[in-house]
Design a protein that fits this description.
By secondary structure, the chain is α/β, with parallel strands linked by helices. It has 3 domains: 2-173 and 261-351, TIM Barrel (Alpha-Beta Barrel), CATH 3.20.20.70; 194-249, no CATH class; 359-491, Elongation Factor Tu (Ef-tu), domain 3, CATH 2.40.30. The chain is built from 16 helices and 25 strands. Helix 1 runs parallel beside helix 12 and helix 12 packs antiparallel against helix 13 (314-322). The longest helix has 24 residues, at 367-390.
Length: 505
C-alpha cells in the first residue's frame, strides 16, 4: 500500500518524503480546500523540482478539489502555464468540469477523484474509470466491506482512503455548517471548522412536523420510538453556545444519524484490514498541521506498514507508533469503516502535545566548512585577547569582574572538539542550555541531547550562543552524528497529561 502524506508548504513536503511517505499531496494557489494552508505559489516550483530530484522515487499529487465556479475555471486556465512548471504526477479533483482541461494540458498526469465527490459504490467507480480516472479517493462513508466489494468489481482501479486525521462532516467533507454559521464556504477552502465548536442538541418547537414539549427537552432519556420520530421529523437541531438562536437541523437516516464528524480517524491498528479490503493507498489528512505532526504521523504509519509487510518486526515498529500520542490530536475513531454508529460520536477540542518543535536540522558541514568556522573562532579569540591586552589594567579588571557577574555578556569562541560535527540549524522556538532536548529522525524514536554534548554557535563570530529563538542565525555543533531532516524537540513544561484544549487544531 502507498502511504500518502500532506504537505502544506515546501518544508512539510520535504519532511513527508524524508519520514517515509511514498507520495505527498499539495495545493496550488486558490484551487484547494485548504486555502488557509501556505500552499504553493510564485517560484516555489523550483524548490519542488529539487526535492523531486532528491527523492526521485517519490510521487507528487496536487489537490484541485474545490467546486469550480465560472471565474475559477477562467482563472485556472490562465494559470495553466504556471502549473505546468510543477512536477505533478497526479491531480486530485472533484469537479468534472476540469477533467477535459487537465487531460488536454497534462496528458502525463494521472486523474484521482477527490473524496469530495462522495464516491462510495462500484457503479460510480466504473463510470469514473470510463472517463479516464486512475484512482478513486473514496468517500469517508465507505465501509471496509463496501471497499472490498468495489475492488472485486473494478480490480484494476486504484482505491485510496483516509487512514488518519480529520473526518469532516458527512457527506465526505461536504460541510454546509461553516457557510450557514459563519458565511465561510468549506467548499471554497474557507472552512471555519464548525464541527469542533461547542454545540447543544435540542428540540425546536417551531421547527418540523413534530413538536416537543418543554418536559421532553428537560428529560435526559426519551423512548427510542420518540427519539426516532423526532430525528426523522427534523425537529432536532444543534445550537452553538456563542450563537444562540442559530440552528442547524439534524436528520435521521434509515440506519444512522449523520451530524458531526469532529473526531480524528485513526486506523493504525487496523492496517491489515485495510489491506485486505483492497486499498492501494492510505491517505493522511493534515495540510494545515505542523511540520512536527507531518513528520511523526508519517513515520508512525511508515513503520506500521513496513511491519505489516514483514520488512521490520512489530516490536521495532511499536515505539515509533506510540509517538502518535506525542502530537496534538483529538479523540480518535474508526469512522465508517466498521460501524456507522461510531462515526456519529463527536468530540470537542484537542489534546496538547507534550513537546514543542524547536528546530530543524539541515545538512552536515563539510570538513572545509567546519575548518572555516573554527578559523573564525580563533580570530575572534585573538581579537578579544588583543582588546583586553590593550586596556588599562583597572579597565581590564573591571571588564573581567563584569564577566564574572554577568557571564552572558562574555563572548566565548568555540573550541575544536575531536569527533564533533557542525550542522545547519533552523530555530523555530526558544532554546537555552537548560532545555531538555531530544533529537528525532526517520528511523530513531528519539535521542536525548545531553548537556555539554552540543553547542549553539553564532556563525558571524563563531561564538557560543547562550540561547536562540526564531530568527537567529545559528549552527549546531555537537558530538552526535545526525542525518539531514532530524528534528529537535523540547519538552513543554506547561503540558498536563489529559488536558484538552477547547480551540484550535
Amino acid at each position: 500500500m502507498e502511504l500518502l502524506s500532506p504537505a502544506g508548504n515546501v518544508e512539510k513536503l520535504y519532511y513527508a518524503y524524508a519520514y517515509g511517505a511514498d507520495a505527498a499531496y499539495i495545493g496550488l494557489k486558490k484551487f484547494s480546500l485548504r486555502i488557509k494552508a501556505d500552499n504553493f505559489y510564485e517560484e516555489e516550483y523550483k524548490k519542488v523540482i529539487e526535492l523531486k530530484k532528491q527523492f526521485p522515487e517519490k510521487k507528487l499529487h496536487c489537490a484541485l478539489n474545490i467546486c469550480f465556479h465560472n471565474d475559477d475555471i477562467d482563472s485556472f486556465i490562465r494559470d495553466i502555464g504556471y502549473f505546468k512548471q510543477y512536477p505533478i504526477d497526479a491531480f486530485i479533483v472533484q469537479d468534472l468540469g476540469v477533467v477535459p482541461i487537465l487531460q488536454k494540458n497534462f496528458p502525463d498526469a494521472a486523474l484521482h477523484l477527490s473524496t469530495q465527490a462522495s464516491c462510495v459504490n462500484r457503479e460510480a467507480v466504473k463510470m469514473y474509470k470510463s472517463i479516464g480516472f486512475k484512482r478513486i479517493v473514496l468517500g469517508r462513508e465507505a465501509s471496509l466491506k463496501e471497499i472490498r466489494q468495489i475492488k472485486d468489481a473494478v480490480p484494476d482501479m486504484e482505491l485510496e482512503a483516509f487512514v488518519h486525521g480529520a473526518m469532516c462532516i458527512a457527506y465526505s467533507g461536504r460541510c454546509l455548517m461553516s457557510s450557514l454559521l459563519t458565511g465561510r464556504s468549506a467548499q471554497s477552502g474557507f472552512c471555519s471548522h464548525t464541527c469542533r465548536w461547542d454545540f447543544d442538541l435540542k428540540c425546536r418547537p417551531d421547527f418540523g412536523s413534530v413538536s416537543c414539549s418543554s418536559s421532553d427537552s428537560d428529560r435526559k432519556i426519551i423512548s427510542p420510538e420518540k427519539a426516532k420520530q423526532l430525528a426523522q421529523s427534523g425537529t432536532l437541531a444543534i445550537e452553538e453556545h456563542s450563537r444562540r438562536g442559530e440552528y442547524f437541523p439534524v436528520y435521521e437516516g434509515d440506519d444512522f444519524t449523520a451530524i458531526l464528524s469532529s473526531k480524528d480517524i485513526k486506523m493504525i491498528d487496523h492496517l491489515k484490514d485495510m489491506k485486505e479490503a483492497g486499498l492501494d493507498s492510505l491517505k493522511i489528512e493534515g495540510r494545515m498541521k505542523s511540520t512536527y505532526y507531518v513528520a511523526l504521523v508519517t513515520r508512525a504509519y511508515r513503520k506500521a506498514i513496513d511491519a505489516l509487510d514483514g520488512k521490520i518486526t512489530d516490536e521495532e515498529a511499536a515505539p515509533l507508533i506510540a509517538e502518535l500520542e506525542n502530537v496534538s490530536h483529538r479523540e480518535s475513531t474508526t469512522g465508517f469503516y466498521y460501524s456507522r454508529a461510531d462515526a456519529d460520536k463527536t468530540t470537542q477540542g484537542a489534546s496538547d502535545s507534550a513537546y514543542d518543535l524547536c528546530a530543524t536540522i539541515g545538512r552536515k558541514f563539510s570538513e572545509e566548512e567546519k575548518s572555516a568556522v573554527l578559523k573564525t573562532a580563533s580570530e575572534t579569540k585573538n581579537k578579544i585577547q588583543s582588546e583586553l591586552d590593550s586596556m588599562h589594567p583597572k579597565a581590564r579588571e573591571a571588564r573581567l569582574k563584569d564577566y564574572q557577574k554577568n557571564p552572558e555578556r562574555k563572548i566565548t569562541p568555540i573550541e575544536n572538539y575531536d569527533g564533533w560535527n557542525m550542522y545547519e540549524y533552523e530555530p523555530l522556538n526558544m532554546v537555552d542550555y537548560n532545555s531538555e532536548l531530544e533529537f528525532i529522525s526517520p528511523d530513531v524514536v528519539f535521542t536525548p541531547a545531553k548537556k555539554g554534548e552540543w553547542l549553539l554557535v553564532n556563525p558571524e563570530n563563531a561564538s557560543v550562543r547562550n540561547w536562540v529563538c526564531n530568527g537567529h542565525q545559528c549552527i549546531l555543533y555537537t558530538k552526535y552524528d545526525l542525518q539531514k531532516g532530524t528534528l529537535l524537540r523540547v519538552k513543554d513544561n506547561g503540558y498536563v497529561e489529559g488536558i484538552v484544549r477547547d480551540t484550535g487544531r
